Amino acid sequence: KSLLAHKDETLEYKRQLAALGDKVTYQEHLNALAQQADKFAQQQRAKRAAIEAKNRGLTDRQAARDATEQRLKEQYGDNPLALNSVMSEQKKTWAAEDQLRGSWMAGLRSGWSEWEE
Asked: Tens of pLDDT along 61-75?
């Protein structure tokens, strides 16, 4: 009798563990869906920021930069130090792009190299 009672307790315990495992799996699935929804919403806000920038008369490049800035602010808004760091790096990249765009010699070399390939 004792062995049978112990067996029933063990089976009940395993059933409870299985049910708990199912709940954990379901919650993980819900969390993944919530993350996907957040990512989608963030992408849509960035697209709207680009559209609004174009409505203000900005160029495609300026609109893309505004959208990137908006995306970074949303992504790193909770961490001001990280936001400052990524914005600083992004602005350095934009400055390098602008400098390259303003250099006719670099454009000539790049065009010549592409033609040679």
From this structure: 888 898 899 889 988
* CB count in 10 Å sphere of residue 54: 15
Task: With CA atoms as reference, report the closest residue to 87 among 104, 98, 100, 74.
Answer: 74
Contact (Cβ atoms closer than 8 angstroms) between residue 53 and residue 62? yes
The terminus-to-terminus CA distance of the chain in angstroms comes to 85
Let me know if 42 is exposed, middle or buried by CB neighbors in 10 A (0-12, 13-18, 19+): middle
Contacts of 47 (CB under 8 A, 6+ apart): 67
* pLDDT tens-place string over residues 86-112: 999 999 999 999 988 887 777 777 777
Cα–Cα distance, 35 to 76 (Å, whole number)? 16
